[in-house]
Amino acid sequence: MELTFNPEVWQISYTEMTIRLVLALVLGGLIGLERELGGHSAGFRTHILVCLGSSIIVLLSMYGFSEFAAEPNVRMDPARLAAQVISGIGFLGAGTILRTGLTISGLTTAASLWVVASIGLAVGAGFYYGAAIGTLLVVISLFLLNKVEKVFSRAKKHHEILFKIHRGSAGLNQIVVKMKSFGIQIDKLVIESEDASDSSNNTSPLLIRMHVKLKKTKRFEEALMALSSIEGVLGLETAGDSL
């Protein structure tokens, strides 16, 4: 069976191209809006640009080289540039992931950037239904399932607490006793001077970094208030495991 070349396959009208790009902007914006409202590093405009850029790339890959389609030695591959988007978007997502002590943040934003790139590719390829359903499911995951995630996150029992206490006070002993009374188990304790460059300074506060495990998560806020009121404690900061 002889295959015939159909040049119309590699052509797209300006109207259709405009529809795809505008739709990519709208769908990417819907996902970015949730990230923006949550105050995340990659928000509304970032998601729009990723989705729109992905759509432009797949349109270029499919229709940007149509004048060479009829050449006998040219083999058109509409997915060649799109494949690079899927692997290349990782550098942007990695930039949103931060680790501070035990806290890891930005994983959800990195994942949303990756999925919004795939939605942009789908829109650019004319896969409208898949792009629309994908966007709907992502928005549901970010908006609605976020509430479910918060319920389960309350059960996360590992935290890091950073104390600043007056040197020479009995604050550390009182902290340990108070933690035991609230069911807080100390897994790791590191003591350092706030002015690490001057070890002879006996007036600088001590920084005590503790990795703790909670037995009763509901009383954690109450425990923090009690710990901050101990004599000799100049301040404290806390962070828990989160994605």
Report the portion of residues in β strands.
15-25%
Report the radius of gyration as a whole number of Å. Answer: 27 Å
Describe the largest sheet.
4 strands, antiparallel
Structural class: alpha+beta
How much helix is in the residues? 40-55%
Question: How many beta-strand elements?
Answer: 6
The SSE order reads: HHHHEEHHHEHEEHE
In DSSP terms (H or I, runs of 4 or more residues), the helix count works out at 9
Euclidean distance between termini CA atoms: 56 Å
Low-confidence stretches: none
Q: Could you give the order of strands across the largest sheet?
A: 4-5-3-6
Count of domain modules: 2
Mean pLDDT: 77
Keywords: Cell membrane, Membrane, Transmembrane, Transmembrane helix
Main location: membrane
Family: Belongs to the MgtC/SapB family.
Transmembrane segments: 12-33, 45-66, 78-95, 127-146
Describe the fold and architecture.
50% of the residues lie in helices and 17% in strands. It is of the alpha+beta class. The termini are far apart. The protein has helices at 14-37, 44-63, 80-88, 90-94, 107-124, 128-143, 145-153, 171-181, 220-228, and strands at 98-100, 103-105, 158-165, 184-193, 206-214, 233-240. It folds into two domains: 10-152, no CATH class; 158-240, 2-Layer Sandwich (Alpha-Beta Plaits). It contains nine helices and six strands. The longest helix has 24 residues, at 14-37. Strands 4-5-3-6 form a four-stranded antiparallel sheet, with helices on one face. It is elongated, with a radius of gyration of 27 Å. Strand 1 (98-100) and strand 2 form a beta hairpin. This is MgtC/SapB family protein.
